[in-house]
Automatic annotation (TrEMBL):
Residues 1-144 are annotated as: Disordered. It holds the Pfam family Amidohydro_1. One of its GO terms (molecular function) is metal ion binding. Residues 37-66 have a biased composition (Basic and acidic residues). This is Probable imidazolonepropionase. Keywords: Histidine metabolism, Hydrolase, Iron, Metal-binding, Zinc. Its EC number is 3.5.2.7. The keyword Metal-binding applies.
Length: 579
């Protein structure tokens, strides 16, 4: 927990539109053009929610209805677009999302002043030029070879849908940009031997262009959908000591603080984690990460924080580093030594020890290459670390080159959202008690809000105001908050809960679990969407529409057929293996 152990009541259901996919045709993308092949999703209420009364509703009787028997049409707004053949009328393009360049994570290296200046660049300046859309093939126009000559790692061919999420190199999606996720129909995708995407486009064009190429593996995706690998922006996966008994206590009426005062909660986990060996911790971490992979996660943030003393925190970070080097899933490490105040110390004393002892040691071990830490985290909460102590720790970490990504405004309004905007944080997690002023500040600063639906669900808490954040233009990301108190590996379940309890649409939830989660981790330049030049992390689901990944509540081990990282299959379900 930190804040990482919380969970809550169900709010009203939120309905999300999706691309209406029909027929099987795809508009051809040639030369350097950037046409959408899958059309736009039906927006039934301006923000992706169903409105059976508004003027943009789907008219099932009138001339603008979806033609369920033939080609697919766009439902709502100003009529219908056909996806087969030529479109009857081209809609006005959606407004371009406001974005700014985001530097790759610097880990423990001090950031030069020029980099800091770039992060503080005013919003009024024009965004950097966008790279070509994902349908433009490297090496020139169709028919040329160029960089495409030679062997390749993976060909995924004839997919029913390829959900690229972004079409023009966006680093995040917010506001109106969330209304038009990029989806290709009848498409194929190529990953090179370096693990990066080399081409995406119509299946017939890819077949012709790569007809003489060799591939280490080819997968027929007929009738299936390809999506970006999911990104889990907030996890606590390194710990020892089961706490299943606490769930029974909660069901019997015990509160979180009741359990904490009885010796449970974080302190129970800290005690067992301190006693565990590195080998024991690595074995359990490996199993948990494998479960995440089977649910479609290809990039995860992993926190320390169940040690609190320097020795155990370093033990946890060494375990995370070993997993980063040995396992195929992508990992970003977060130092979370300020997860709780150790017994016998005040928050000020704990902050002093972290600043004067823990952080210098992290710098030393980072310079030697023993460990690599990407982010710094603090649990900013009443009775834990107050705003001043939180600011001191985060600022010290930032001066070492760590990215700020912390817990805040979970149980009480702490002005953590405002602090995150002030310090230039990549993200703030939880935010159930974020103020209107804090939400506005995060939107202006382009500080991500990592929302954790499992926490509110399992602890029966109020939901964070996701719709308010989305409407204000905050970059909303999602995380599982996996920890002993919120035992959920599955980002598809997280997306489902976000839609039902937080009233997010399905496109908003998918963006929050891919490109925006990658942005919250400083990795959206390489992860979070399927575009030429990005890492070949993706999933293949056995469904004709991508929305099944969110619509289906559980059982995703049957739905997800392949999980791919850097172009290599790292999970194949039993049904695929039998074929």
């Amino acid at each position: 927990m930190g804040g990482g152990e919380r969970i809550g009541g169900a709010g009203p259901s939120g309905w999300g539109g999706g691309e209406r996919i029909g027929g099987g045709g795809a508009e051809r993308i040639g030369g350097g053009g950037a046409e959408r092949m899958g059309g736009r999703r039906a927006d039934w209420r301006g923000r992706g929610r169903a409105d059976w009364r508004g003027r943009g509703r789907a008219d099932w009787r009138g001339r603008g209805r979806a033609d369920w028997g033939g080609g697919a049409e766009r439902i709502g707004g100003g009529g219908a677009e056909r996806m087969r053949g030529r479109r009857a009328r081209a809609p006005a393009p959606p407004p371009a999302p406001r974005c700014r360049p985001r530097l790759p994570p610097r880990g423990l290296r001090p950031a030069p002043s020029s980099a800091r200046a770039l992060r503080r660049r005013p919003q009024s300046r024009a965004p950097a030029p966008r790279p070509p859309p994902p349908s433009v093939l490297p090496g020139g126009l169709p028919g040329t070879r160029g960089a495409m000559a030679g062997g390749h790692r993976l060909l995924l061919e004839n997919a029913r849908q390829v959900v690229t999420v972004c079409a023009r190199g966006e680093r995040f999606l917010a506001g109106d940009a969330l209304h038009s996720l990029a989806v290709l129909e009848g498409a194929s995708l190529v990953v090179g031997t370096d693990g990066f995407i080399k081409a995406i486009g119509p299946a017939d064009a890819i077949q012709k262009l790569f007809s003489e190429e060799t591939f280490e593996e080819r997968i027929d995706c007929s009738g299936k959908c390809i999506l970006p690998g999911l990104v889990d922006a907030h996890t606590h996966p390194v710990w020892a000591g089961e706490r299943v008994h606490e769930f029974a206590m909660k069901l019997a009426g015990a509160t979180y603080m009741d359990i904490h005062q009885a010796g449970g909660g974080i302190n129970f986990t800290v005690e067992h984690t301190r006693q565990a060996s590195e080998e024991e911790l690595f074995g359990s971490l490996r199993g948990r990460l494998q479960s995440m992979v089977r649910a479609g996660t290809t990039l995860a943030e992993c926190k320390s924080g169940y040690g609190l003393d320097l020795q155990t925190e370093l033990k946890m970070l060494r375990v995370i580093e070993r997993a980063r080097r040995q396992l195929p899933i992508g990992i970003l490490a977060t130092y979370c030594g300020a997860h709780s105040v150790p017994k016998g110390k005040t928050a000020v004393e704990a902050a002093d020890e972290i600043i004067n002892s823990h952080l210098p040691k992290l710098m030393e071990l980072g310079a030697s290459g023993e460990i690599h830490v990407d982010n710094i985290d603090v649990f900013c909460e009443k009775g834990v670390f107050d705003l001043n102590s939180t600011r001191r720790i985060l600022q010290s970490g930032k001066e070492m080159g760590l990215q700020i990504n912390f817990h805040g405004d979970e149980l009480h309004p702490m002005k953590a959202a405002e602090l995150g905007a002030e310090l230039g944080a990549l993200a703030v997690s939880h935010l159930e008690e974020a103020s209107d002023e804090g939400i506005a500040a995060m939107a202006t600063a382009r500080c991500s809000a990592i929302l954790l639906p499992t926490t509110a669900y399992m602890l029966r808490l109020k939901q964070p105001r996701a719709r308010k954040m989305l409407d204000e233009g905050v970059i909303v990301a999602l995380g599982s908050d996996f920890n002993p108190n919120a035992y959920c590996f599955s980002m598809p379940v997280v997306m489902h809960l976000a839609c039902v309890n937080m009233r997010m649409s399905m496109p908003e939830a998918l963006a929050a679990a891919t490109i925006n989660a990658a942005y919250a981790l400083g990795k959206s330049h390489t992860h979070g969407s399927l575009e030429v030049g990005k890492q070949g992390d993706l999933i293949v689901i056995n469904a004709a529409r991508w929305e099944h990944l969110i619509y289906q509540f559980g059982g995703h081990h049957e739905l997800i057929e392949y999980v791919v990282a850097k172009g290599k299959v790292i999970y194949k379900n039993e049904r695929s293996e039998r074929k």
